[in-house]
Amino acid sequence: MDVRISAGASEEEASAIAAALAAHVEHEVEIYVGDDEEPTAIREATVEYEDDLGPTERERLLCEEIADIERGGPEKYKERLSEQGKLFVRDRLDLWFPDGPLFEDGRFAEFDSEDRLPADGLLTGAAEFEDREVHFMANDFTVKAGSMAGKGVEKFLRMQQRALKNGKPVLYLMDSSGGRIDQQRGFFANREGIGKYYYNHSMLSGRVPQICVLYGPCIAGAAYTPVFADFTVMVEEMSAMAIASPRMVQMVTGEEIDMQELGGPRVHAEHSGSADLVARDEEHARDLVAQLITYLPDKAGEKPPRREAKPPKRSPEGIDSVVPEEPNRGYDMSELIERVVDRGSYFELKPDYGAEIITAYARIDGRPVGIIANQPNHRAGAIFPDAAEKAAEFIWKSDAYEVPLLYLCDTPGFMAGSGVEKDAILEKGKKMIYATSSATVPKQCVVVRKAYGAGIYAMSGPAYDPESTIALPSGEIAIMGPEAAINAVYRNKLDDIDDPEERAEREADLREEYRDDIDVHRMASEVVIDDIVPPSDLREELVNRFAFYEGLEKDLPEKKHGTVL
């Protein structure tokens, strides 16, 4: 309720009027003095109850029980957490949710147990996180090393099933040693046991964002939650995940290895690709997730949240200077990206895995986009198996959550050789092409420089139903580059020329003829591509194209699902 009083009233008078009115109308009251634009006094509603009844002894005892549960496991285990630089689980929840959870489910799990098992070592509930409502689960490592048993498993399953019904994101704050082996009969193989976790993960996949943060060693069954999640964050010198513990590995294989070497953050960020991000500490992990969630909707079928548009970090007028004249010279594609996307919005995922492709979220004019970009600074931007798999997964997730896709193509194509064949270049390349083909969100393809071989297919070229294929003047589209093409077609004829100077001159002429044939001007002339864009205009061009196609709807052929995974 806003009330304006005459000019000249003092702050004390305004406060007294506000207090009296708030008590009378039972609403918040704002008092404005004269023509002031800001209120001089604000008073919240005050309510006076008609009786003087208060809590009883029964309620006091319940509050003591709750306080005891919230203390967690033995104090000696809490002390070990601090020695490891880790937070006690309820302190961790305070970090993530400063106003506290909205509610907690199953707090009294195992309350009557002969052993002291507060909440059965696993907390579940709902909270507000960065102005978003989310489900959460968090292991309490002070209770049996965060291990999972009957009641905790039931709580976990209920939380997942509720998320499936109400369509809100899920945060998994993991710190678990796995299943409680001495109690496995109660939860391991049951229809509603721990195995149902991964069934529920599968049902939630693509329905709501699932984000997992690892705070400790997650072994065996516990390690599947992070890999089933859409996005996984590990913490340096703290997190680890593996199918078996170092002790079990030694028993089975004879290999002696510590937990960090077996499954620490570097292993999964650089080699397996299971970690999307690596945080420095607990606070940094929260900050990373707070950024990530801004690009994602609450559930499938909703558009990702838009923010206020910001100009790029660097001027778009420098784009042409970033891309070298020489087609084989490397450069950092992120410098181009930062001249296109909104300032401060570039958020790269899996930067150390398959680094010849960049996968990142960003905003263009406030709209979230998923970026798939070749990185000429790394392996000349050729697509290796790990990069293809990384890109496929990113495209698939972005499409599931309605995030439009921007492809920035500068690649000599898929890598060749016996090594990549053994690493399944065909299989993993197939997945990338399949994901690009199946994505129904708006797609924009920009041929920045090289678009050779099947690289233009994987990067959503003209045949892959992009809303537009546009190019910069540096672009080239071809089966292969000039050097390889001349070697394949003219090698014998060139070898027949005895004079080295004449041979070199003829080879240079053939190279220029070939380059003229694959230049994007020819592609634009034949309407293979939609337009050639001045590099300085690229950002504005993308702003307009993403805005124009924002409400686009695409249908896939009617079928149960594809067969490519």
Helix content: 25-40%
Distance between the termini: 58 Å
What is the CA-based Rg, rounded? 30 Å
**Kindly state the mean pLDDT as a whole number?**
91
What is the strand content? 15-25%
Given the C-alpha coordinates, what overall shape results? globular
Number of strands: 20
Query: Can you tell me the residue ranges where pLDDT is under 50 for at least 5 consecutive residues?
Result: none
Number of helices: 21
Look at the helices and sheets and give the structural class.
alpha/beta
Q: Main β-sheet, in a few words? A: 8 strands, mixed
Mind explaining what this structure looks like?
With 565 residues, the chain is α/β, with parallel strands linked by helices. Strands 13, 14, 15, 16, 17, 18, 19 and 20 form an 8-stranded mixed β-sheet that branches. The chain has a 7-stranded mixed β-sheet with strand order 4-5-6-7-8-10-12, with helices on both faces. Strand 14 and strand 15 (367-374) form a beta hairpin. Helix 14 runs parallel beside helix 16 (425-438) and helix 18 (482-495) packs antiparallel against helix 19. The longest helix is centred in the last third of the chain and has 19 residues, at 500-518. The two termini are 58 Å apart.
